[in-house]
Structures are given as C-alpha cells and as structure tokens.
C-alpha cells in the first residue's frame, strides 16, 4: 500500500509565538486554527502551509491530561509525529496487523477536516510517533 507524506506535527508550548515564527520567518500561511477538547487530544491546533506542505502546531490545552503536555514533559517541544496518508485506513490497519505492528487504539478518530487517523505504537516504529490517515469524505476532482 502506498504511503504519501501528509504533514508534520510539532508540539509547542506557546502557540502564538510558534505561529508568528512559521508565518514571519518561514513565510507560511495560516490555513486553520481550532481547539479540540476531545479526550486524548486536548490541544489547540494551528495548521501552517509552506509551499504546499502542512505543519500542525500542537499546543496542550490541559497540562494534566493532554498527550501533547505529556510529550513536552517527557521529550520537550519539537517534532511530535510524522503523518502518512494511505488510500484506505481500514486496509492499512489490516496490513499493519499482518506485519505485527501495533497501533494505539485509543487514538483512532476523525478530525474536524474529515481526516481519519490513528497513531502507530512508537515501540514498533523505532520510537517515532507515526500517524496513518485517510480522507474518506474528501473526493478528488
């Protein structure tokens, strides 16, 4: 199954400062900004586009339960995850299971842009958090 780079997720402490950097220093465009208080997310997210490539800036909204807050406490701010788009997330999950790659079941969700996503278990990916995603509601012209 083909995997295509989709976006990079970056954990940040201060979303305003990070947006400022990505817009003014890197020349990006703010595509969207939203807050998700869903369990296991608890983050404010800013999507920055630079030359067709997206970066998600992720700031925790709850320093006790947000996985981004836990990530920053353990590893510091910086790259949180790398996301790869697949044609069909269900088929990709079956393929992963056959390969013995585990996923973090509680991360399966659909975001506000219709992207279905799940994180692979970092214990099986050499420590990198990898997201698989698809866009089942988005049709290409």
UniProtKB/TrEMBL annotation:
Gene3D superfamilies: 2,3-Dihydroxybiphenyl 1,2-Dioxygenase, domain 1. Residues 4-135 form the VOC domain. The keyword Metal-binding applies. Keywords: Coiled coil, Metal-binding. Residues 79-106 form a coiled coil. PROSITE patterns: VOC. Belongs to the methylmalonyl-CoA epimerase family. This is VOC family protein. It comes from Gracilibacillus xinjiangensis.
């Amino acid at each position: 199954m083909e995997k295509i780079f989709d976006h990079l997720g970056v954990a940040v402490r201060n979303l305003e400062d990070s947006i400022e950097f990505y817009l003014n220093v890197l020349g990006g465009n703010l595509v969207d900004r939203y807050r998700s208080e869903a369990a296991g997310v608890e983050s404010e997210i800013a999507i920055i586009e630079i030359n067709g490539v997206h970066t998600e800036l992720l700031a925790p909204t709850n320093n006790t339960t947000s996985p981004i807050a836990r990530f920053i406490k353990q590893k510091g701010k910086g790259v949180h995850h790398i996301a790869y788009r697949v044609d069909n997330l269900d088929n990709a999950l079956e393929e992963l299971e056959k390969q013995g790659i585990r996923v973090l079941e509680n991360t399966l969700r659909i975001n506000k842009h219709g992207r279905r996503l799940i994180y692979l278990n970092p214990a099986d990916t050499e420590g990198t958090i990898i997201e698989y995603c698809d866009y089942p509601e988005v049709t290409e012209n």
